[in-house]
């Protein structure tokens, strides 16, 4: 109880919160590779910003392994309601993936939830209502910086491992109070859905000891090249810039840098630590062909190959899934979602898939969240799902 009382969340003094790159808590210990994946390397109680209810919170530094096989130190934020859990079994643990959508660590959710300042916290701030709703149900929540210390946007293996190791860390951290009878779930929207589903595709091989009662994902980024083409030259063109910089920076073998002109190479250098929200504001109506001497850059084989390496669908998640997507999504075309659902179903996954009539990416996130949360609540209560696919 003393530990909980010391970690009750209250508004933080923003000026006292350093950026992760200036915060020694984020620095990896020299022997990080000697620890097992998911091991807690360091911890501290936090006073989180923006949650209108009493919650205990910690930041956990833990060992993970990136997509290159290198041992890394990542960070997760764990939030637990201070009221006792009266449901059947232990208190549920939900892994919630914020749409990190970034190229720099100051955009990570741990910085925002720890009281971070400036517009780098926008994506996490938008998810405060969802986090509040989960905590009001009495669930413990772990929010992982799944892009890792190098902020690898759209790196599926890296993101999925980060999610799974964040769950391992939260589950083993005694003050959270997760027991053998605590059901575990996962949820993410948009960029958070990408990380969530990559985690579920890797679960059996990477973290077979973790059993998930249910998983929800919406606004799923499938058909990545088509997403870039949808927003290119439009109000959300900064998202296409985000993808271009991420693939050019993260995928050294893609050859994308060779396709860029001097202005494009300057773009990659200048925006190498930007948040997605920054890029959207700075690159309204931008056309990516201006950064390349190769016409139709977003159709170029090297760009397409870089995106295809990050596509979901190579293997079916072996957990009950609730997937949802607006048929009039203005950012992520629904065709990629439908194709992914068909792919998962053909591979034998158990899915409830909803083609939502709510128009728009963000409106669908808000309206359809209740269905996702109710699905997770039913799984946490032990209610079974019918095998196979239900698509509506």
| N→C terminal distance | 46 Å
Low-confidence stretches: 1-14
Average predicted local confidence, pLDDT: 93
Which CATH class of the largest domain is shown?
Alpha Beta
CATH topology of the largest domain: Rossmann fold
Strand order of the largest sheet: 1-2-3-5-4-6-7-8-9-10
Helix content: 25-40%
Describe the structure.
- With 392 residues, the protein is of the alpha/beta class.
- The protein has a 10-stranded mixed sheet, sandwiched between helices.
- α6 links the parallel β6 and β7.
- α5 crosses α6 and α7 packs across α8.
- The N terminus is likely disordered.
Task: Draw up the topology in text.
Layout: H1 2-6, E1 40-45, E2 55-65, E3 71-81, E4 93-97, H2 109-113, H3 122-126, H4 128-136, E5 140-144, H5 156-172, E6 184-189, H6 191-206, E7 214-218, H7 224-231, H8 237-250, H9 256-259, H10 262-270, H11 276-282, H12 301-308, E8 321-326, H13 334-346, E9 351-356, H14 361-367, H15 369-380, E10 389-391
Parallel strand pairs: 4-5, 4-6, 6-7, 7-8, 8-9, 9-10
Antiparallel strand pairs: 1-2, 2-3, 3-5
Helix pairs in contact: 5-6, 7-8, 8-11
Characteristic key phrases:
single chain, 16% strand, 10-stranded mixed beta sheet, disordered N terminus, 392 residues, 2 domains, Rossmann fold, 10 strands, 434 Repressor (Amino-terminal Domain), alpha/beta, globular
